[in-house]
Amino acid sequence: MKKDAVVFFLNWVKQASPDVRPSIIMTDHDQAQIAALQEVYPSSRIFLCTWHVLRAMRRHFVTNAFTSLWEKIQIWVQMGDSDEFSRIWQEISTDQAVPQSLVEYLKNEWMAITDLWSRVSRQNRHIFEEGDTNMLIEAYVFSRYCECLI
Fold this sequence. Notes:
single chain, elongated, two-stranded parallel ribbon, 9 helices, mainly alpha
């Protein structure tokens, strides 16, 4: 149901502005939204927002009780070097002091989709791709919304 609503909205934007075809779309970890984006904009790359990724991860352990782990996860999520990314994951996943529930959560929810959130996957993009994101869609919606208020 939620996916259908997002598809409807995205198609409305696409029909109103057919020239807007973002090469990159940033979103959170919402599966319905990701599926809708893939359906309406199949040639766009989808990346997960770093802020949302960190927010989701920190909800699975008490960061104040594991401050060094939290610092390591923040570095890991933003790591662009693949060897260093793997090394930090190895440290996190094998450290007996890390809650095993967190390790399992990261393994099950995040490791299979590192191409969506890891900075390792976000390299070697042209400068024009950096600006060609869903911000164009958001700007269109905002301008239409403001028009309605006037």
